[in-house]
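Following up on my earlier thread - several people asked me to post the actual chain instead of describing it. Fair enough. Here it is, all 491 residues.
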Amino acid sequence: MAIREGSVFKRCSCRDDTTGKPLGTRCPKLKRPNGGWNSAHGTWAFQIELPRRASGARRQARRIGFDTQEAARDHLDHIKAALAVAEGDEQAAIKVADLIEAAIAKRTDLPGTDEVRRRIGGGADTREQVPTVGEWLTEWLAGKKKLAASTRLSYQGHITNYLAPHLGWVRLDKLGVGHLQMMFEAIEETNDHIRTSRASDDREVRASVHGMRTVSVSTKHRIRATLRSALSAAVSRPDLPLQVNVASHIELESAPRPKPVVWSAERVARYRKTGEVPAPVMVWTPEQTTRFLERAYRDRLYALFHLIALKGPRRGEAVGLEWDSVRLDDGAIDITTQVVQLGWDTAMSAPKSAAGRRTVTLDTDTVKVLKAWRKRQRQERLKAGESWTESGRVFTHPDGTGLHPGWVSGLFGRIAAEAGLPPISLHGLRHGAASLSLAAGVDVKVVSAELGHTTTAFTQDTYQSVFPDVAKAAAEATAKLLPLKQTGAGG
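Reply from S.P.:
Thanks for posting it. Predicted structure:
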């Protein structure tokens, strides 16, 4: 028989006041009035239908008394992993079910996959050579020697957080579209739980999902892409009995690329009232950007934010910029490296694409700002003396050490808050620079090249008409859209 999904549920020992019968999963105290689970009432349990006994009788594995839903789910997944070892072999499956049933009856540890293989004997050599999805994902990722560190981290996150928990127990050649559908349905159920809990009037319910993030449609597509890549490698392996890449046959809702939305006066007013951010990608108006830069001018790293706001390098490109790549006399910088963030660790990396390796032309004001910053940094170097760290970076701490991308984002957020501005990400400052350039009438091909985009179509589709009112002033240079008086180093 095919391995059943099983179920995880919550129950209690309360009885009906009239009949005296156990309420089990029907007890109204199990949930709060807002629909969230009541952590102070009931316990979690699981059940799953096992392969029939040798006599043909049906049987279930069931265990109650878990403190959390996650603990019950872990035990259920453990059972499914054990059953997967014998999938396709009826007699071996009966033996595995016997082991599971005995462990539950004696309240001992459930058998692991290695123990199961040892106990059911050697009649399944071929099956034992077929890895589970979890085993294959681990082997596949370990063999990807040329992956960029950031890509490896992304793949590992998809495997650890989604693919292994939901699919890891399935034998590779038994993986079907249905398994993937159930995984994405479970992810969406978690999304619904987070959204409902966030909207709850109960502080404890809201606290229960603090720090939890919903999984976006685009992330679901990336999860599928990771699995598809891993399964494609498995299909090409002659020693693995996998003929079809099922990840290519699962349909997901479309993931439209989020476009920048301007913080108009109406949107700002609504945000002040409700705290709701209208869209995933927000950008400031020219006036708001000016206000930010006027406040940032009091910070020693003003030049960094000025560069991003005017010319739009990515955060990692700006943080990783080296003086060897800056030609102030020519009014240009060469983007050849970037700092990528791996968790909280960082690494230097080349841009991902050929388009990312580019030359950016600087306006006169930005050249003045960078010259003033270079002078200040040289003064800091003299003051630091032997304690100076020679990183070669354009933007550094006072001792010469390079900046951490996450730290820069935090500084950006604090300055924006001090300026009384609605929130955007540091990447939103790059979006703003792109939109300003297009609104100023700069040719889309020039903007696309300076941003490091692969195609002009992407640039035009993403940014054009973000500032329709400013676009009328097409004769204005981009820098003139920001009426800045500051051309010093700041700080």
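The chain has three domains: 1-128, 129-256, 261-481. That should answer part of your original question.
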